[in-house]
Amino acid sequence: MTTPSSLRRTIPSGARISEWRAPDGWPLRRFDWPAEAGAQRGSILFQGGRGDIVEKYFETFHHWHAQGWSLTWFDWRGQGGSGRITDNPHCGDIEDFADYIGDLRAFWRDWAESATGPKVVMGHSMGGHLILRGLVEGAISPDAAVLIAPMLGLKAPINAGFGEWLARLMGSIGKPTRLAWKANEKPHTTATREALLTHDHERYLDEIYWQTEKPELLLGPPSWRWLIEAFRSTRGLRENPALPLMKVPLLAVIADADRLVDPKAAAAIVGKLPNARTVRFGDESAHEILREVDPVRDRAIAAIDAFLTERAPPL
């Protein structure tokens, strides 16, 4: 069911946005929306993808908050309202994906001390990759995890190995921190950015609204260095011998028609986990499953709700 745009485009009452400092002093923008007193079912730490901002997920957060969940999010290093890494504020860059994991580890340690009830982590796209990597490496220890369109493999010409080789070649030609391409979420495509993300025009416009209201949160294409590190990190997770030993209950929601991340790689990796299940969508869903048309979004949320109910029944 579609939430009125007045709620999708307004910071929820009772929520707060603050700054959290990583151990090295790096400023990260943080969002917290505590559950109502007496209705605290549990706590969700939700992490977005590359370039994501929490404002895009207010609609979905309203749903879980109404069910008694406290919601928390922080913008990844180098994007959103967090400190940038290059002189170009619209370039998505990272020196090493281990920096993301370091931030996640430290934030989890602080957050888990005060979070109430069962603790659930959720991650979309790049956030899904980092959540699973954090689980496998022991950076976080939730009661359950949900991955939505997780970036467990990158779309690349020929295959991931060639894509990584090409990214390293391009990164070596000039400054690796330069933009890998000029616009859109994906190079060399005739598909619009909207078509790559969602079939729901109004939900797509929610993001444009927030980019207009808060242009300082806008991020553009990635750097060559980000691409190199993304290929390296996804390869490392795929080859990590600890992957099949990760026993935290996990639900993966995958869009088989996703043109931004590799859904086949995601399904294969999740298939190696001993306590995981998968919900899959076909051509009806693009990359942003939780911001899709109602039939897709409602089915995805219903699957996640059923998974959460097994861990924390409604009060």
From TrEMBL:
Record-level Gene Ontology MF annotations: hydrolase activity
Keywords, alphabetical: Hydrolase
InterPro entries: AB_hydrolase_fold, Hydrolase_4, MAG_DAG_Lipase
Keyword Hydrolase in annotation: yes
One Pfam family, short name: Hydrolase_4
Span of domain Serine aminopeptidase S33: 40-294
Protein name: Alpha/beta hydrolase
